[in-house]
Structure formats: C-alpha cells, structure tokens
Design a protein that fits this description.
mainly alpha, Tetracycline Repressor, domain 2, elongated
Length: about 200
C-alpha cells in the first residue's frame, strides 16, 4: 500500500469510501468501522478524521454513492415509459439492488447515527430524490391529486417494496412457502396503483 504522501486528499477520500463498500459487501455492514476502513487501505485510523467528521459522515458519504447509482439507474430505466410502468420498473430495480448487493443495500438502511445525532440535511436531500422519482410518475398518473396525497402514496409504495426486499434479503419470505419476490412486487405495486387511482 502506498504511503500517505503518495495520495492526494481526494484520492485518500475515494479510497476510504471504496473501502467502506468493500468491507460491507465482504464482511457485513455491522463490522464497518474507522479501524477496519483504515486497515483496508493501509493507513492509521486517525487519518480518516482529517477527511471525514466522524464514522457517520464516512458511512453516509459511502451510502451516497449507492443512492446516486440507484437514482441514475432508475432514471435511465424508466425513460419513455408510461407512469404505471415506470413505478413498477423502479420497484423491480430496487429489488434487484437488494438481491444482488444485499449487504451494501443493508448498509444503506441499517446504519444508525451515533449518540442520537440527526441525519444531516445534505443526506436527506439525496435520499429524497428517490421518493421524488416516484412522485413525478404519480403526478403524471393523477395530476388532479393533491401534493400531500402524492407524497404519501410515493412513500407507501416505497415502504411496501422495501419490506419485500428486507424479507427477501433476510430469507424470511420462504417461511410461508416458495414465493417469487418479483411477482410479489408486481402484485403489490399494480394493485396499490389501481386502487389509489380510483380514489377521488
């Protein structure tokens, strides 16, 4: 591993963020720590605190990479689709992320801020973009609906799909018999949207 003076501050930051995701995927999100990240990239743990405010900041910035990649993927995948199809595509892509990169997905949603500190506004704004993508399609679907109804529906759909993903990743869906997760998501989204659109 190169010495400290062989990397710029930006390069060190990128290495640390890469390491967070590597550790999460390889060893599990619960073991990500400043010590483990520093060890992964061959530096002393104290170096990280010259680049990040704390371990929460490090993990949230790493999670932002996942959120950004997912957001970009959803935008590309739903281009020129009908509103109904776009919402379903987003739900299925989200399921794919959870199934293919389960531990990285868990890091995204299982991380808890230390000492009760609030999640920073910049991170909230980043994650809000995901809800925003669903809201845009719901507006296309029912432009007459109030904004509060749109926001509630977007979060209801996202939360329900998230629940399916969580059960899938933890292997709990098969307790009641074999279930194809994608079919479950399709049923959930299609039936919710059908009912939601029929409500005045």
């Amino acid at each position: 591993m190169a010495r400290r003076n062989e990397h710029t501050k930006g390069e060190l930051k990128a290495l640390a963020l890469d390491a967070v995701l590597v550790i999460a995927e390889r060893d599990g999100p619960q073991v990500v720590s400043a010590r483990k990240v520093a060890q992964e990239i061959g530096y002393a743990p104290g170096m990280l605190y010259h680049l990040f405010e704390n371990i929460d900041d490090l993990i949230l910035q790493a999670n932002t990479r996942t959120v950004s990649a997912l957001t970009d993927d959803l935008v590309r995948a739903t281009k020129r689709q009908s509103a109904d199809k776009a919402v379903l595509t987003m739900a299925l892509r989200y399921l794919q992320l959870a199934q293919k990169n389960g531990r990285r997905w868990q890091l995204l949603f299982e991380h808890t801020m230390r000492n009760g500190v609030a999640v920073p506004s910049w991170y909230q704004a980043q994650t809000a973009k995901l809800f925003g993508l669903v809201e845009q399609q719901l507006v296309r679907m029912c432009p007459q609906k109030k904004s509060v109804e749109i926001q509630l529906a977007a979060r209801a759909v996202w939360s329900a799909v998230h629940g399916v993903c969580l059960l899938s990743v933890t292997g709990k869906l098969n307790v009641g018999g074999a279930v194809k997760e994608a079919r479950l998501v399709e049923s959930l989204v299609q039936n919710y949207l059908h009912g939601w659109k029929s409500i005045d």
